[in-house]
Structures are given as C-alpha cells and as structure tokens.
Amino acid sequence: MIDRSPIKFTPYLKSVIWGGDRICTYKGIEQTEAKVGESWEISAVPGHESVVAEGPYKGMGITELIECFGTELLGTDVFRRYDGKFPLLIKLIDANDNLSVQVHPDDDLARERHDSLGKSEMWYIIDADEGAKIYSGLNREMTPEEFVRLVEENAIEQALAVHDSQAGDVFFLPAGRVHSIGSGNLLAEIQESSDITYRIYDYGRRDADGNLRELHTEQAKDAIDFTYHEEYRSAPADPEKSYAVIAECSHFKVGRVLLDGEIELAYAPTSFTVLMCLEGGCSIGEMKLKAGETVLIPAAMTSFKLKGKATLLAARS
C-alpha cells in the first residue's frame, strides 16, 4: 500500500542556448551550470525520469513507483488510459532570450511519426520583465504554402500573434498552435509527456559547435493548425475564488489555488494531483512547500489540507 503523503522529486535542470539564472534563484538552489532554461519538475520522459528526493521512496524513479503502486499512484482512469505510464511533463521555464518559433504535433501525428503522445500544453506566467512578450497563434488566416514562403524569407515573425506578458497570465496551447516564449518570462508549463518539437525559426542562432540549429519546416507544415482566432490568451481566473480552473483539455485539468489560511482539496481516486507552489509557502501535512517546488499527490490520497499563504497550481489528468 502506498504511503499517503506527497512525493518530491529532484528537478532536472536543463542548460539551453536561451536560458539564464532565474530558475535557480527562484527555487533557492545553487546553480552549477550556465544558462539553465528549464527545470523538469516531474518527468517520465525516457532518459530524464524523475527520481524521488526524500522520504520513504527516496532514490526510486517514477517508473519504479508506478510498477510498485500502479493505480494507487496514477489513479484508476489514468492508469488504464495511459497504459500505466505517467502522462504529464511538469516544467519551469526561464526565457532569458527568445525561444525558437515552434509547433508540436497532435496525438495522431506524433503516434504515426514518433510512437509518442503529442504535445498540448499550458503556461502560467510567474514573473515577466517590463515589455516581455508571449507569441501564441497566428495573426491572420494563412495557407501552408504561405507559411513555407514566410519561413524561407525569414519573415514568419510577421505572422505571429503577439501578447504583452504579465504575472498571472494563462495561455493554453493545443497541439498544432505556433508559439514562442519571448525573453524576460519565467513561467510554469504543464504539458503532455512528450519532448517532440518542430522548430520553425531560430533567429539564426548556432549551437555549441557553431552550426545553425536545425529547422523542421516540412514536418511543422503538416502539424500546424492554421485556424485564426481573435483571442489566444485564456480568460483570467476570478481573484475572489480560492480555486478556479484555468486550463482544461482531454489530457489535463489545471486549477489555480489562492491559499490564505487553510483549504482542503478532495478528489476522486481516478487521477494523481500535481501541486506547483508559485508564490509564498504552505504545508501539506508534515511536508513544507515553498515557491519553485512541486509535489506529486498519489491518487490514493483523495483529500489533503493546505495551510499557509501561497499561490499554487493543481493539475490532474
């Protein structure tokens, strides 16, 4: 029987060309390498599977936990739907420079090409410098042929919908939506468990060996949803509500929790819950949680109390 307590994992800090030093400062940990752009808080991506940081399961990988506890960890519905695999990838992202313009395939295309889940995702802006931007969606109707022409002319930026970025903003990005994170954004990302990205435009940047980073124009053309929308930013959460759903799709449901004192969250044992502390701090039983930390609540832990003053995200599959 699984221990009914939250599980903390050791984050995987990923150094990337556009990264900085904000994540380690935010998390209050030592930065041991330059340009940390991502912290993979909970991951089952092969090669980067999360390892338990403390408690009775310290040193166990997430796949090993699932093998031991199955539905008690994942939940009855999640275990069945995803064949006993952890279906989400939970990240923090520091865009010290602009990320590439990119797109992710949907489940059908990803399964056909990569034997993988697709990649729908959501962003919650934790902090943003003055003038920071988010690029999400297209600013007009477009054909695949026009897309290829704009990429060839290094002019695809002209077709992106541009949004001023502020702390608390939410963007839902279904697979197929062209997007980029502009410099100056620190954000939380909740996505399907997939590391498949089709890079469309990269500002002419070169890798550590001096080579231009690879673009995936033809693959991206088939993956893009060219539908134009007038609004790409999600509606803001009601500031008067202690819990509000801010993003929802077939793979995840994310709520924003405003904690000031004590609140009890109760769920059916159909799914695990991921809690990300974005601001402030709180306790879950004996465990303390501070800004920049993430925990996995096993599905068998169907109710739990949060005490403190904090802003959190609560995600379920």
Task: List descriptors.
6-stranded antiparallel β-sheet, alpha+beta, 8-stranded antiparallel β-sheet, 7 helices, 317 residues
What does this 3D model show about the protein?
There is one protein chain. With 317 residues, the chain is an alpha+beta fold. The strands form 4 sheets. Strands 1, 4, 14, 15, 16, 17, 18 and 19 form an 8-stranded antiparallel β-sheet that branches. It has a 6-stranded antiparallel β-sheet with strand order 2-3-5-12-7-10. Strands 9-8-11 form a 3-stranded antiparallel β-sheet, with no helix packed on it. Strand 16 and strand 17 form a beta hairpin. Helix 6 packs antiparallel against helix 7. The longest helix is centred in the middle third of the chain and has 9 residues. It is globular, with a radius of gyration of 19 Å.
Query: How much helix is in the residues?
Result: 10-25%
Which stretches are poorly predicted, pLDDT < 50 over at least 5 residues? none
- The tally of beta strands, per DSSP, is 19
Largest pleated sheet: 8 strands, antiparallel
- Looking at the structure, what is the overall shape? globular
Distance between the termini: 22 Å
Radius of gyration: 19 Å
Q: Total helix count?
A: 7
